[in-house]
Please model this.
Amino acid sequence: MVDALYTLFGGEGQLLYVVAVVTAILAIMVPVMISVALVVYFDRKIWAAVQMRRGPNVVGPFGILQSFADALKLFLKETIIPTGANKFIFLMAPMITFTLAMISWAVIPVDAGMAIADLNVGILYILAISSLGVYGIIMSGWASNSRYAFLGALRSAAQMVSYEVSIGFVLVCVLISVGSLNLGDIVESQQGTIFNWNFIWFFPIYVIFFISALAETNRPPFDLPEAEAELVAGYQVEYSSMAFALFFLGEYANILLMSAIMAILFLGGWYAPFPFLEFIPGFIWMLIKIGIGFFMFAIVKAFVPRYRYDQLMRLGWKVFLPLSLFFVIFYAAIYVYGGLLPVRG
Model:
């Protein structure tokens, strides 16, 4: 994407290359930020529909500007720092969480060739960044000088590490079938009709990935780090104003990121489900599939009760870890002994 913009701008000089890089970043980041505000609105509307309520309906047409009003309210509030807090780390933690949520989008292709960076190791990049995400939460819990916040941070760290293992094995299953760590190559391998998409052949690990993604993003029924009945608000309990807003934005950006990864790995990315629908641009299909993923996240929150912490850990270590490891061996055996391994030059 950067090279295409550089060529479009004339293709000469370092300054134009910097302009192309900045343009590519803005072309992805600005829609992501706007999408985060909109999905918060749709999240609340979905919960309201399940519970037979109206949801946001006052600010703007159908209440669609409610998220922007909430953002303005948080922006104008005072940032309150607890007396015993480590001020530098207290303020750095939400910035780290938000920044890591944003930079993960650098390798997500929304259409053929439409990614800020087309890395050959895109999957490893996402795994590395998602692993760093726990630091922002740990820092916020420790710097708040609060037992509730620290316990919530420890819960979140244990939870994210536990379910990242299962996500890693799920990715291995898909990578065996593709023979590449490049996200574009993974989508290209699903070209054709909906019957070529990975969610059919890899349906068991698709389910494992989705449930692990719920735990990875601290979404219900795995929102133990923020359990209001036990921890008030977990690691966010001492935060207000824009510091709280950065955590909130980072959480929803991560949910959209997980939805995008599900679309790329299992739902054919930017490809249409049937050839007669190919007149619709690829990025529209990608947005639709991300929307389907987000709807699944929202609907689970609306009707699945919260797990106990021991149930959460048991599911991660005693169920998903052995299952995902079994499927790695199972699919690897089929590809090796069935002569189905991909050959890439």
Observations:
- DSSP finds 13 helices and no strands in the chain.
- The chain has a mean pLDDT of 86.
- The longest helix spans residues 14-50.
- The two ends are 23 Å apart (CA to CA).
